[in-house]
From TrEMBL:
Any matching Pfam family: V-set
SUPFAM superfamilies: Immunoglobulin
PANTHER family the UniProt entry points to: T-CELL SURFACE GLYCOPROTEIN CD8 BETA CHAIN (PTHR11292), T-CELL SURFACE GLYCOPROTEIN CD8 BETA CHAIN-RELATED (PTHR11292:SF7)
Compartment(s): Membrane
Entry keyword annotation includes Iron: no
Protein topology in the membrane: Single-pass type I membrane protein
Family matches, as SMART domains: IG, IGv
The organism's taxonomic lineage, starting at the top: Eukaryota, Metazoa, Chordata, Craniata, Vertebrata
Highest taxon above the source species: Eukaryota
Keyword NADP (UniProt): no
Source species of the chain: Mesembrinibis cayennensis
Molecular functions (GO terms): coreceptor activity; MHC class I protein binding
Segments passing through the bilayer: 154-176
Main subcellular location: membrane
UniProt-recorded name of the protein: CD8B protein
């Protein structure tokens, strides 16, 4: 199972990047671990994707169809921080990235870093004179974008937070089930 934990902290929380640029996500561990896993939650595809695992010796294992040119992991000599380097950014890289460590047959997730790809603006060679009609169109589109209920950027972090919360409840429910069963067995043995 997955669960979020205070043993891992990720920075930054959000990344706005441009196409073809690169970025880096830092994962700080409160204690040493044998290695770090990196996952991506894709809102568009509605799935968790394993990207890469890196151990203390610098050995890496990549997920299926994951480009080694795009993702690389760098560990600090203290073995308490790792960074995921993402290059050649594209719209398909959008999602929430999680660092993770394995502990007691559970994967502990970091707080998550949301990557939103921002396409570069086209270069303006000449400036056309402004007219009232396009200006009104711009004002309308800005007003429409401010409606919170329809904006996917409002729902994306909320959906991801709910999913992480639900995933963190699974191990707790399993533990409660085991405790209840042990108690039932003790009562019936007496």
């Amino acid at each position: 199972g997955f669960c979020t934990n205070l043993l891992l902290s990720q920075t930054p929380k959000d990344i706005l990047a441009q196409t073809n640029n690169e970025t880096e996500i830092l994962c700080e561990l409160k204690k040493e671990h044998a290695g770090v896993y990196w996952y991506r939650w894709s809102q568009e595809r509605q799935n968790f994707e394993f990207l890469v695992f890196s151990n203390l010796l610098g050995k890496t294992a990549y997920g299926a169809n994951v480009s080694q040119d795009k993702f690389s992991v760098h560990g600090a000599s203290s073995r308490s921080s790792y960074s995921l380097h993402i290059s050649h950014l594209h719209a398909s890289d959008n999602g929430t990235y999680y660092c993770s460590v394995s502990q007691s047959s559970q994967l502990l997730l970091g707080s998550g870093t949301r990557l939103v790809d921002v396409l570069p603006l086209p270069l303006r060679t000449t400036q056309a004179p402004r007219t009232k009609k396009p200006l009104r169109h711009v004002i309308k589109s800005k007003a429409a974008g401010k409606k919170g209920a329809c904006n996917p950027l409002v729902w994306l972090p909320l959906t991801a937070s709910i999913l992480v919360l639900l995933l963190s409840l699974v191990p707790t429910a399993y533990r409660l089930h085991r405790l209840r069963r042990r108690l039932w067995l003790r009562i019936h043995r007496q």
